């Protein structure tokens, strides 16, 4: 018995010794870890709440935004890696005094490894193994004093973390891709882009808040989702991409249709619809309920898809055009305007909502996106199907005295939205996007 007590006493004293050494180590690394966490937290807050990514518009700062954000993530992983490596023999996660810290680290690692964020399931997902590897890459041991460790920024720089924030490079990649498929084969270009799936620089993964605000604040102009005869009104999103705007329209109660020329994009839309935890698209008004969602593959300019979904020409009460006008080669703009007159319901039920963007892009810069100043919408939609002349600066030769044509749409509202995606702002953060609403005259 006495031998037993001695053994327990020895174990206890060894445990105490381990604890105090562990305390010392945690104390040594806790402060840099805390600092790294605060720096990372501040960067995430700035990105999510303070429009930090608008610095992307500024070429001189873009690289800094990328690299330093990557550094802050790496720095955090590095300190957790160091801490775990140093105290791994000290029952770090079971010692009561460290449990709070251990649980906090665990929660952060779990958030990084979840597939819940981003537009693709794995956009912001870093598996635990990857987190560990980043931590390891970021850490250099000192050969002379092995417990002395430091951060290795240049090494991280050589192993940049890829983040799916849109960059001009991605735009250029997409442009180069589309440039291979000009003229009649341009649909093939979009198709291949979607099949490839990693050059989708326009894709923000959620609807533009300007659309949401329009549907909430402009019911007086557009009308609600239910027609006077009690039927749901129909909303069309041409070139709907991942379909997020279509889901938004349905959540407001419209029967919502998303048109895409690419089969892979239609698949992406269906996947987006299946995401169950998408609180963004919850029913807005219980009395109205949710509208039906239909995604269809087809070419905006022909009628095949209309037949497939059983909607006649001029059967859409609302059409939402965002990043579609600017995606099309300007040569197609007369056809684009004419086609809207063929799809939009007659006055006053039919409303075409254009979220005009990007208005502040250099008109001579290659696209897509092609610069889309308000004057271009005005000239084309006032004279559907007609050639509009552009000057050598790439701007429409607008003639304010020219009468609109009979089939021309009329602009019934035009405003600067209070909120929009960052790409719709200039380098000073001023919103350049505009919303315009158009109706047929007949
Ligand atoms: C720049 S993307 C915008 C996507 C979406 N509106 C968004 O904001 O994420 C343009 C989309 O239009 C589609 N598209 C281009 N020409 C089309 C056409 N003639 N008919 C149907 N879709 C088309 C492309 O496949 C592409 O997904």
Q: Care to describe what's here?
A:
The chain is an alpha/beta fold and 442 residues long. It has 2 domains: 8-91 and 98-115 and 124-151, no CATH class; 184-440, Vaccinia Virus protein VP39 (Rossmann fold). It has helices at residues 2-49, 59-87, 96-113, 128-137, 153-158, 168-179, 186-196, 209-217, 219-222, 244-251, 263-274, 304-309, 333-343, 374-382, and strands spanning 139-141, 149-151, 234-238, 255-260, 293-297, 318-322, 351-356, 410-415, 434-439. The strands form 2 sheets. A 7-stranded mixed sheet has the order 5-4-3-6-7-9-8, with helices on both faces. A two-stranded antiparallel sheet has the order 1-2. Helix 1 packs antiparallel against helix 2 (59-87). The termini are far apart. 33% of the residues are buried. Residues 4-9, 142-149 and 154-167 have low confidence and may be disordered. The structure holds S-adenosylmethionine (SAM). The site of S-adenosylmethionine (SAM) has 22 residues, from helix 7 and strand 4. Residues 187, 190, 194, 202-203, 238-242, 259-262, 265, 299-301, 322-324, 327 line the site of S-adenosylmethionine.
């Amino acid at each position: 018995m006495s031998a037993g007590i001695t053994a327990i006493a020895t174990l206890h004293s060894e445990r105490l010794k381990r604890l105090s050494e562990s305390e010392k180590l945690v104390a040594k690394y806790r402060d840099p870890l805390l600092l790294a966490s605060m720096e990372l937290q501040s960067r995430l807050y700035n990105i999510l709440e303070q429009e930090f990514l608008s610095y992307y518009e500024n070429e001189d700062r873009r690289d800094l935004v990328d690299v330093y954000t990557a550094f802050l993530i790496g720095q955090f992983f590095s300190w957790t890696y160091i801490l775990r490596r140093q105290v791994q023999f000290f029952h770090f996660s079971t010692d009561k005094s460290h449990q709070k810290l251990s649980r906090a680290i665990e929660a952060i690692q779990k958030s990084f490894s979840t597939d819940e964020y981003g537009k693709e399931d794995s956009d912001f997902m870093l598996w635990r193994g990857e987190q560990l590897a980043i931590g390891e890459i970021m850490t250099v041991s000192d050969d002379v004093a092995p417990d002395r460790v430091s951060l290795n920024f240049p090494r991280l720089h050589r192993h940049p973390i890829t983040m799916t924030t849109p960059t001009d490079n991605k735009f250029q990649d997409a442009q180069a891709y589309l440039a291979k498929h000009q003229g009649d084969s341009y649909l093939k270009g979009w198709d291949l882009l979607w099949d490839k799936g990693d050059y989708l620089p326009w894709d923000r993964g959620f609807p533009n808040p300007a659309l949401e605000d329009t549907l909430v604040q402009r019911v007086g102009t557009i009308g609600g989702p239910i027609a006077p005869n009690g039927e749901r009104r129909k909303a069309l999103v041409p070139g709907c991409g991942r379909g997020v705007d279509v889901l938004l329209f349905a959540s407001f109660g419209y029967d919502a249709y998303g048109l895409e020329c690419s089969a892979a994009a239609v698949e992406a839309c269906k996947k987006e619809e299946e995401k169950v935890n998408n609180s963004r698209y919850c029913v807005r008004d219980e009395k109205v309920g949710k509208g039906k969602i239909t995604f269809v593959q087809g070419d905006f300019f022909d009628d095949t898809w209309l037949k497939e979904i059983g909607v006649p020409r001029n059967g859409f009460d609302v059409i939402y055009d965002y990043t579609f006008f600017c995606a099309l080669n300007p040569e197609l703009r007369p056809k684009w305007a004419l086609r809207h007159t063929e799809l939009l319901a007659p006055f006053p039920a039919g409303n075409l909502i254009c979220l005009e963007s990007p208005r502040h892009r250099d008109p001579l810069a290659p696209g897509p996106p092609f610069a889309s100043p308000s004057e271009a919408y005005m000239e084309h939609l006032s004279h559907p199907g007609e050639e509009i002349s552009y000057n050598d600066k790439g701007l429409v030769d607008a003639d304010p005295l020219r009468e609109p044509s009979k089939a021309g749409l009329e602009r019934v509202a035009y405003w600067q939205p209070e909120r929009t995606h960052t790409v719709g702002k200039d380098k000073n953060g001023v919103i350049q996007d505009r919303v315009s609403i158009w109706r047929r005259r007949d």
